[in-house]
Amino acid sequence: MVKVNFEYGRTTDLTTRDHSSKQPTHKKIIHIDMDCFYAAVEIKHNPKLRGRPIAVGGRPEERSVICTASYEARKYGVKAAISSYRALKLCPHLILIPPDFEKYQAESEAIHEIFERFTPKIEPLSLDEAYLDVSENQAFKGSAFLTAQEIRRLIFKERKLTASAGIAENKFLAKIASDWKKPNGQFLITPQMAPSFIDQLAIEKFPGVGKVTSKKLYSLGIKNGSDLKKYSEHELRNMLGSFGDHLYLLCRGIDEREVETSNERKSLTVEYTYPKDLITLAECEEKLAIIFKDFEERFLDYEENMKEYNYAPLIKGLVVKLKFHDFKSTTLERFTNVKFPSLEQYYLLLKEAFLRYQKPVRLIGLGVRLKPAPGGGRQLEIWK
Ligand code: TTP
Ligand code: MG
Question: pTM of the full predicted structure?
Answer without folding.
Answer: 0.69
